Amino acid sequence: MTDTYDEFIAEIKDIYNLKGIERILWWDQQTYMPPKGGLDRSLEMATLSTTIHSRMTSEKMGKYLDDLQRESVYEDLTPEEQTNVRETAWEYHRAVAVPPELVKELAKTKTGATQDWAKAREKKDWSIFKPHVEKLLDLKKQEAEFIGYEDRMYDALMDAFEPGMKSSQVETLFARFRDKLVPIVERIVDTGIRPDTSIVTAGYRISDQERFNEMLLPLIGFDMERGRLDATTHPFTSGTLHDTRLTTRYNPDDLRPAIFATIHEAGHGLYQQGHLDDHYGTPMGVAISLGIHESQSRSWENMIGRSLPFWKFFYPKLVEAFPKQFEGRTVEDFYAAINDVAPSLIRVEADEVTYNLHILLRFEIEMALFSGEIDANDAPQAWNERVDKFLGLDVPDDSQGVLQDIHWSMGAFGYFPTYTLGNLYAAQFFEMALKDMPDMYTSFENGDFSGFLDWTRRNIHEKGKLHRAEGLCREITGNPLDEDHFISYLNGKFGPLYGF
Amino acid sequence: MTDTYDEFIAEIKDIYNLKGIERILWWDQQTYMPPKGGLDRSLEMATLSTTIHSRMTSEKMGKYLDDLQRESVYEDLTPEEQTNVRETAWEYHRAVAVPPELVKELAKTKTGATQDWAKAREKKDWSIFKPHVEKLLDLKKQEAEFIGYEDRMYDALMDAFEPGMKSSQVETLFARFRDKLVPIVERIVDTGIRPDTSIVTAGYRISDQERFNEMLLPLIGFDMERGRLDATTHPFTSGTLHDTRLTTRYNPDDLRPAIFATIHEAGHGLYQQGHLDDHYGTPMGVAISLGIHESQSRSWENMIGRSLPFWKFFYPKLVEAFPKQFEGRTVEDFYAAINDVAPSLIRVEADEVTYNLHILLRFEIEMALFSGEIDANDAPQAWNERVDKFLGLDVPDDSQGVLQDIHWSMGAFGYFPTYTLGNLYAAQFFEMALKDMPDMYTSFENGDFSGFLDWTRRNIHEKGKLHRAEGLCREITGNPLDEDHFISYLNGKFGPLYGF
Fold this sequence. Notes:
The structure is a homodimer of 500-residue chains. Chain A is mainly α. Helices cover 64% and strands 3% of the residues of chain A. The radius of gyration of chain A is 23 Å and the shape is globular. The first copy, chain A, starts with a helix and ends with a helix.
C-alpha cells in the first residue's frame, strides 16, 4: 500500500506543477504580457486547464483514491497522509462532477471577460461587461448543479474558496456582525473627527515608493530570494513556495495604496513562503482556504501595518525616503492619517472598519443573483441601492460601483465573503497570539516581527490543509469563529483614535 | 477523412499551446524569476516537457499520422495540409525513436553540465567541464543511433535545427566559403585601418538606451502590441505569434551591444510575428529552421542595421537621445565605428566578417568529435590551433576559447553551423529583394522599411514550413544556397569602408 501512496503522491505533485505554471502565467498576464498576447494566452490557458482537469479526473486518480480511502488502508496512514488523501478526494469529486467541455468553456469565457471588464470599467459602461456576466452566471450555475449542494446552489461555488463553509452560516454570522458594526461606523462618523491626511497625499515619486516597499518587505520577513514585487491595477499574490510573486499598485498622489497593498500581499506571501518544503506539491503544503489566507494578509495589513508600534519602527525610514513631504510631521500624525475612517465607494480603498460593509453588500447581491431574485440587468441598481443603505453614499458611475472589482470576470462568485471571514479570523487569531506573547507590540517597535511570524508559521502555515478553517480556528482559539474579537479589536483601536 | 485531419489539427494545436507555455516560462526564467524560483521551475518544466512528449508520441497521434499519410489520403490534401502532416510526422518519428530513459538521462545530464560549464568558464578550467562533454557526446551518439541517419551520425543531430541539411553538403559549402573569406579578412587587416570607435564608447545611461530601442522597434515594423523588449545576459527571442518577446543586453560603456542585439532579435521577432493567424499552432505557422530564422535576424542586424541608409534615418534620433556624446560627430563616423572589423576571440562580440570563422572552427571540431577523430581531451588544443590558423590569434585561456559558449552544455551539437548558414541565406535572399526593389536602400533613408518587411512576409514568413530551407532558397532565388552572394555583399560593403 505504501507503493500506492507513493505513486499517488507522484501523480498529485505532477498536477501541482501544472497548477504552479498556471499561477505564473496568470501573474504574467497581469504584469508583462503584451496587449494582444491574450489571443494566444487564452488558448494556452484552455489547454493547460484541460490537461490539469484530465489528470485530476483520470481513472488512475480515481483508483488511487478508492484504494487509499478504504477504511483499513486509510486508518494506517499518518494524519498528514490522510490530509493529502482526504483533500485530493474532495478536489477530485468536484472535478469529476464537471464535464471537460464546461471547464474549457469557462476558461475561455473568463479570459475574454477579464479583458472586457477592464474596458467596461475604463468606459464606465456596464453594457460592455454585462453579456460576459450573463454567460458566466449561466456557466457557474451549470457548474454548481454538476457539483451538487445540500442547501443552496451558492454553497457549491463558495466551497471552492472556503471549503466546508455554508452560506446560511455566513448569513447568520454576517447579520450579527452587521448589527454590531454599523453602530461603530455611526459613532465614528458622529464624532465629526477627520484626521489631516495631507501627510499622505503630498506627492511621492513612484520609483521612490517602489524602493521603500522593496526595503520594507525583507524587514517584515518576506524572502526576496524566493519572491518579487511588481505593479498591477489590482494587487494579488501568486506563484509557489520558492517563487512567491506579489503585486501592488502605485498612486503618485497618495502614499497609502502602495504601502498597504504591499503589506497586505506580503501577508499572503508569508503564508505561501511558510509552507514546508517536505510537503511541496501536496495539500499538506498549501493554504487551507481563502478566508484563512485573508486572515494572514489582514493581520499584517491592519493589525500590524496600521498600528502605531509598526510605524514607530518604519516612520524614520519613510521620512528618509520622503524628507520634504514629512517635514514637521510626527509619527502620530501619520498614524492618524492611515486610520482615517469614512464611508467611501471603492472597496480596495476602504478603511478597515467600513471595508466589511462593502463585502456584506457584495455577498447579498451574489446570493440574489444565484437565487434568481435578480439578474445581470439589475446588478447596477441592486449595487447602488445597497451602497446608499449601508454606506449612505451615491454611486456616480458604475466604474465606482458594480464594475470596480475584477472577481466576477474571473468567474469567482462566492469569493467575496472570504474577505470578511478573513478579518474575523485575523482578529480571533491575533488575540491568541497576543495572549501567548504579551510583549508582541513592543517587539514591533524594535523592528522585530519574527515572534508573530513564527507563531503563524507554527500554528497555521506549516500545517497546510491538516485542518479545515473551522477546525483550525477551534485548534488555535478553542472556539468557533465569531464576530466579537473583531468588534473588540475595532473598539480598542478606534475608540482612542476617535475619542469614544 | 476531413474529420481525421480536423482532429489531428486540434491535437497538434493543443501540443503547440503547451510548447508556447514552455517558451514563456523559459523567458520568465531568464528575466523576472526570483533567484530561488529555479527549485520549483525545474519541477514544472520536467512535468511540462513530459506532458508534451507523451502527447506527441501518443498512440492516437501515431494513428492520425498513419491514416493521413496513406497515399490515397495524402494526395487529396492541400499543400498546406500536406505540410502539417509531413512535418508533424517528421517530429513524431524523432520523438518516438528515442527511449524515454535516454530523454530523461539527457535532461539530467544537461542540467548538471550547464551548471558546471558556468563554473569551468569562471575558473578557466576545461577539466571541470570535460567529463560532462564526454557523457553528453556518448548520450548524443546514442540518440543519433536511435534516430538514424543515412550518411553521418552528426546529420541526425543537425537535423533537429536544420531539417534536411547534410553535413557533407555543409562541409563542401563551408570549405569554399573559407577559401574566399580568409583573403577578405587578410585584406582588411592589411590596410591597417581601424575606425575611431570612441563615438560608441562614450558612456550611455541604460534607461536612455532602453528608450531608444523601444522607439526603434516599432519604426522598423515590430509590433509592440504583440511583443515586448527586456534585458538578459544572453539575448534571445521567445513567445508566440501575438506575444513575441525579445531580449537584449545593455552595456553602459558601449552603445553597440544593446542596439544590435535589439535589431538582431527584432529580425527573429518579425519572422515570428509574420506567420499567419490561420495557421496558428501548426507547422504552417512556424519557422522552417534555425538557419532561415538566422537569415532574418542577420538581414536586419547587418544588411539593414549596419548600413549607412538605415543610420541616415536613425542617427538624428540617436543624437537626440545622447546629444553630449555625439557632439561634433557625423553619421559617417558612426557608420565606420559600427563596422569595425578585426579578428577577436569571442564569437558573440565578433564583427560580421570574422564572425563566420568562429562558426567554421566550431563546425570542424564538432565533426571531428562525432567522427571519433578527436575526443573531449583534444578539444581545447583543436580549438586553439584553429583560432591561430583562422584568426591569427593566441587563446590566453579556455574561458576565451573552448569554454565560451553554452551550447554544448545544453547538448546542442549541430546548432553552430546554422549561424553561418543564416548569414549565407540572408545575403542570397537580400540580393533578390534588391533585384525586386532596386530603391530599397533609398526607402531605408526615409525610414520606410515596409518594402523589405513585406517582401520577407510574402516570400518567407507567411509560408511557415511549406518548404524546407533548401526548397525555399530555390523557390526564392532559383538556385541552391551558395557562398558567393555573401562574399559579394562583404566586398561591396567593406571595400569602400577599408579602401580596397
